[in-house]
């Protein structure tokens, strides 16, 4: 026995259990390492790119799979747009903290960019509630377009 070797186990039950485990585990491990992993596309989880799916207006009414995919796409887009808005807000706040005495003039481009993005976000997602889906957003867009056709652009009315 060499120094560093694990001690010998004389327990018959443990040796049988270990051999049964190896009988089941060895082919599974070999298949995973030799077949599955070489054929997988490697990408970091945080850079996963989803393919664009048809929007809710391109789905048939009796197609629940298309509805589900459109809603998932809508939720991903909403999360991305919310993060963009959050980043723009943080940039403006950082500018205000850094440029403290002159922040009204120096940070004005950041403020305008944030307000434009906020308006665009609200036009698309505002007043939909927590359980918004693609169909509700599409109906909101339709109603807004009808209103704008009759009354002019909404952004002119809010200023």
TrEMBL record:
The keyword DNA-binding does not apply. It is a peripheral membrane protein. It comes from the Eukaryota. The keyword Mitochondrion applies. It holds the Pfam family NDUFB10. It is found in: Mitochondrion inner membrane. This is NADH dehydrogenase [ubiquinone] 1 beta subcomplex subunit 10.
